[in-house]
Structure formats: structure tokens, C-alpha cells
Amino acid sequence: MSQPLRPVIKQSRPGRGAISRDNGRFERFAREDVQDGWDIPEELPVLRTFVSDEVPRSVINYVRSPDLPFDRTLNPYRGCEHGCIYCFARPSHAYLGLSPGLDFETRLVARPSAPQVLARELRAKRYKVAPLAIGTNTDPYQPIERDRGIMRACLEVLRDFRHPVAIVTKGTLIERDIDILSDMARDGLVRVGVSVTTLDPILSRRMEPRCPAPKRRLETIRRLTKAGVPVRVMASPMVPALTDPELEAILEAGRDAGAGAASWIMLRLPREVAELWQEWLEEHYPARKTRIMGHLRDMHGGEVYSSTWFARMRGEGPYAQILAQRFDRAVRALGLDAPQPSLRSDLFKVPPQAGDQLTLF
To answer: Residue 5's pLDDT band (boundaries 50, 70, 90)?
Structure first.
């Protein structure tokens, strides 16, 4: 009887977060690597990143979640090479017929026409301006952005339309776009959130294998704020009994780097992420698995995750309350509790394009 090759697969995935490539919830058939019956040792090839292109009909995604501070998002890419094992966006790959595990971080989808489609949507007469969030699903500054430049092209469109935007990232590549961001910041059109999950470089490399090191992300905060771009340090996600002891230290490091505000979110494990996360714990921190999962279940009514509005982001119960109190106390002590000014929407203006009729005045 053939045996699964999962132990061999572990050796062939350097720089990857997920351990398996289990199928998404919509697939009828399961795929599994098995031994071929030969006793000859054979090395499996290293997993490479494959990128396909998509031509979207629209790129502005409207959301109606009452616990989110925005109502529209944009994603230049599907999937994320950063490979964060805890990423709550992993289940979205199941809609593509791909695995939320290894496929999510190795089989990416780029949307090169996103800037043109964005401009078309912003020109629509029915469009009503409000801040656009980028990076809330997959990171717009993941490694492939260096070659594709889709995010930068989208930023150029937003700058030309004087459209407000909020960006979330772990990628230091955002520094490349400081010229655009600083211009927009002067008009109150942009703010950035930089996620710092831990200050431990070893833990970071295991949880988020292709993200810049924590120290490097703090330098990004420093460079952005020096250029006049308002930055929020995001202690997200907080993992109970693994990263939450660092909460105050992360906030202080972000403040020292120049961040003017802060936020936090508890670890979220929707759908396939729960199994992927527990596989990861079993490989890297087996002695802590029971304790970590126990805290999560306590915060979600006995389940590993609950999608209840407002509670899904931070959990409920004593442990979640203690962490929230620690955060509130820390931001007050560090001066990170001042409300950020709202992004401006009153400057929005559709720029002229070739073929437009000239005005008489």
C-alpha cells in the first residue's frame, strides 16, 4: 500500500509557511503525493512560485462588514508569496480551485490591467468617493510586485484622481513608492499600516517565511514617517501564548520608529486556516499547541473561530479582555491613542484624458 510522502514534502519547501497542499472545500477529488513503489531515494524539486495573469472586469470590491472601517478594497494580486501561515485570506484560493495551503503562496494570480480598470471605475458618473483600502486581503507589496509594478501603477491612478487610500503591508517594497505617498500625504490622502507580529526574527521566519524581518519593518516605519507619511503600527495578529507577551514591546518599538497610532487583532482561523495552523504548530511548537488552541476556543465559544461581527477580530471572554486592556493601557502610556484625522475625500477630481471635450472657461 502506498504511503503519503508528507515528511518528504516538508524537506522540499524552503521558505514556505504551509505544510500541505490539501484541496479546497469546493473540490470533488483529493490529490495526494504517494510513493511510486521504488526503493530508490529521490529528491523532490523545490517549490517555485508560479504566476498567472487575470483580466478583471472590476477591481473595486465593495464590502458591507459593520466591524470594518472601510467599505471598499482593491487587490492587485490573488495569493501571497509572503506565506504567512496564519493568513485569514488563504480560504479565498479555494474559489480558484486551488489549495489554501501551499498553492496560496506558490500559485499566484496577478492583475496587470488593474490600474486601467481602476481608472475606468473612478471615472464612472455614479461613483461616490470614499477611502479605498489596499492590502486587507493579500499584500500589495509582496515580492512579485518588484517586477510587476501593479501596485505602483494603481497608486499613480489614485494620486491623479486625488483619491484617499489606506494601505496595509508587511513589505518593505513600499519604500520604493515614497515619492507618490509623500505627495498624497501632504494632502491628507493616504495613511499606512505596517504589521509587526513579533520582534523575534526566528519566530517571524517560521510564521511568515518570506516577509521582511521585524527589524527591517520597523525601519520601513521610520522611513515612511520621515517622508511625512502617517503610519500605524499593527500588532496583528496576536497569537495567545506565543506572541501576545510581546504586545507592549511591539507597540513601543513602533512608536520609537515613528508610528503615530496603533492597532491589534487576535489570530483568526476561518475555514481551512484552522487545520493549516494546527499542522504548523505540530511541526514547530508541539508543546504549546494545546495551550494556544485552548485559549482560542475559550475566546470563540468552544470553537477555534467564530465569524460573529465585532467578536471575530478580538474574541470574547477573560483572555481577550485582558489583552484588550493591556493594549489600551500601552497606547495611552506611549501616546499612540490620539485619533487619526480622517482621510480627505473632498479633493477628488477626475483628471482629463485624451479625447475629452475642452471646456469653454
So the answer is: very low
| SS3 label, residue 51 | strand
Q: Which residues contact 215 (CB under 8 A, 6 or more apart)?
A: 199, 201
Per-residue model confidence (pLDDT) at position 235: 97
Rounded Cα distance between 230 and 192, Å, is 6
Report angle CA 71, 112, 140 to the nearest 5 degrees: 50
Q: What are phi and psi of 192, to 5 degrees?
A: -125, 140
| Beta-strand pair 261-266/61-62 | unpaired
Domain count, the chain: 1
228 is a domain residue? yes
φ, ψ dihedrals at 256, nearest 5°: -65, -25
Collapsing DSSP states into helix, strand and coil, what is residue 346?
coil
- What is the number of H-type helices and E-type strands within the chain? 13, 10
Residue-wise pLDDT tens digits, 174-208: 999 999 999 999 999 999 999 999 999 999 999 99
Tell me how far CA of residue 155 lies from CA of 61, 176, 304, in angstroms.
Answer: 16, 12, 37
Per DSSP, 357 falls in state: P
Residue 205 buriedness (CB in 10 A; 0-12 / 13-18 / 19+) = middle
Region class of 258: left (phi > 0), else alpha (psi between -120 and 50), else beta: left
Identify which of 345, 337, 307 has the alpha carbon closest to the alpha carbon of residue 166.
Answer: 345
Does residue 346 sit within a domain? no
Confidence (pLDDT) at 33 = 63
Domain range for 98:
6-29+47-334
Q: Are 203 and 285 in contact (CB under 8 A)?
A: no
**107-110: strand order across its sheet:** 50-53, 107-110, 77-78
Domain at 158, CATH number: 3.80.30.30
